[in-house]
Amino acid sequence: MKRRIWEFFLTLLLLVSLYVVFFTQAPYVIKMVFVLLYSSVIIYTIYSLILENRTAQHTLLWIYVLIFFPFFGYMFYLYSGQLYLKGYLFKSKRKNDRDEWIRVSKQDEKPDYTDLKRHQTNFAKHANHITLTRLNRKTATKILKNGDETFPEIKRRLLEAKEYIHIQFYIFRSDRLGKEIMDILIQKAKEGVKVRFLFDGVGSLSLQQHDIDRMKKAGVLVQAFLPVRYGFFNQKLNFRNHRKIVVIDGKVGFVGGLNVGIEYLGENPDIGFWRDTHMVMEGEAVQVLHAIFLMDWEYVCGEDLLEDPHLTTAYPSEGDGTVHVVASGPDTQLGIMSDLYYSLISSAEKSIWIATPYFVPNIAIRTALRIAAQKGIQVRLMVPEINDGFLTQYATRSYFPELLRAGIEIYSYQKGFLHQKVIIIDGDTASIGTANMDMRSFHLNFEVNVFLLNTNSVNDLVEQYEGDMEDSVKLRPVEFYKRGHFERTKESFARLFSGVL
């Protein structure tokens, strides 16, 4: 709170200084005093920036922004440039979650790596070391392709709920699909099922208040994650909960890339066909997914449900491999998903297949991909031909020359918008979840991914990836290098914002 007040004071001082200097007839001496005040704030900010020991290029970039863009440069830095380093913003949640994970996880059980291959063991040991969640073997998983497989399955399972439904989405719309799911939640609440519904305060802005009131009236407990009403000067506004979680009776869990809206069924004519991947699982890993929801729920409303053993009991199921559920974001170790992606890529011995809508990787991941390709490992990257944002589309394309020179295969998905977030290593290990391969997913958003080792679901992901390749065009280096100067300019401009995409 003190830091927020201090930053608000500095922002106000900058604004007043600019107003006095440029828009008043104040005496020359008074204007010089405000020029000095403005300069002092910028110098103080630059000094604080230097002390953070970022890379030289990032430090210089932000110094230029602060100096050459009066006031707006400071605001941009305040709400974008410094956020991923300011661990104090979610310090209490991070500490509380860590204590909860230690309590609910069976830390005394040593992980079993006996049936894993060498590259899988290397990754699994690293993941087990840096996360507070553990490997799960007694879990059955099933891949759901696109909305036409995912939403009927979600609705069917919701209708089967007997005790409770816990549901969380980044985007939840009041359109036809959203109302169908809300009607089911209302129906189950009236039947006596305990329903808790959590939505992101910014991602779900289109969720209408009368629908929220309708659910509450029926007994559904509804909460927004960091709603906009908290104010512009609250830096947490830029941190969003990007997780998509459904847990039913502690026995069934859903996670993946799909939000709730008709566009995810391909019914929005402005977007067209929507390619995505979701997953349903049963077994002990559902408990881990559930704990992530319960910790988010406690953060927004203070209700601690992890003390209830009925809600934290695991229900083992016959699995066919290893499943590891991992949460990432400002409430976990900084950059943990980036580290896991790097470790997964570095463990590859034969192939690396990536499908992502937003490819704005950090230096470590780019280096890992480039070295893997140079070692003769097959590296494939699949991205949509048309993205849903100018900056994300052209920032992604700005990395293509480096990747093509290293021998990495790039596929441009043509059928529609590719939104799935999938990594497949050597055909037997995979990641699926909510985290994109960009800085926002690595540092700002709350995410959740599931890592699969030797499960049948990995085979399904491989088969679907090969099918997606048939709907894609492989970029030819010679043709790509012939793109016009205007295209290069857009790529270079968009890349300037890669640190906040």
Spatial order of the strands in the main sheet?
9-16-15-14-10-11-12-17
Q: What name is given to the CATH topology of the largest domain? A: Endonuclease, Chain A
Measured distance between first and last alpha carbons = 27 Å
Low-confidence parts lasting 5 or more residues at pLDDT below 50? none
Task: List strands and helices in order, with pairings.
Blueprint: H1 2-23, H2 28-51, H3 56-68, H4 72-81, H5 91-104, H6 118-130, E1 139-145, H7 146-159, E2 164-169, H8 176-190, E3 194-200, H9 209-218, E4 221-225, E5 245-248, E6 252-256, E7 274-275, E8 277-283, H10 285-301, H11 309-312, E9 322-328, H12 336-346, E10 351-355, H13 363-374, E11 378-384, H14 390-397, H15 400-405, E12 409-413, E13 417-418, E14 422-425, E15 429-433, H16 439-444, E16 447-453, H17 456-470, E17 472-474, H18 477-481, H19 485-495
Parallel strand pairs: 2-3, 3-4, 7-13, 10-11, 11-12
Antiparallel strand pairs: 1-8, 2-5, 5-6, 6-8, 9-16, 10-14, 12-17, 14-15, 15-16
Helix pairs in contact: 1-2, 2-3, 3-4, 6-12, 8-9, 12-13, 14-19
What features would you describe in this structure?
The protein has 501 residues and is α/β, with parallel strands linked by helices. It folds into three domains: 2-81, no CATH class; 92-110 and 138-321, Endonuclease Chain A (Endonuclease, Chain A, 2-Layer Sandwich); 336-500, Endonuclease, Chain A (2-Layer Sandwich), CATH 3.30.870. Helix content is 46%, strand content 18%. Helix 13 (363-374) links the parallel strand 10 (351-355) and strand 11. Helix 2 runs antiparallel to helix 3, helix 3 (56-68) packs antiparallel against helix 4 and helix 14 packs across helix 19 (485-495). The chain is globular and about 80 Å long. The mean pLDDT is 90.
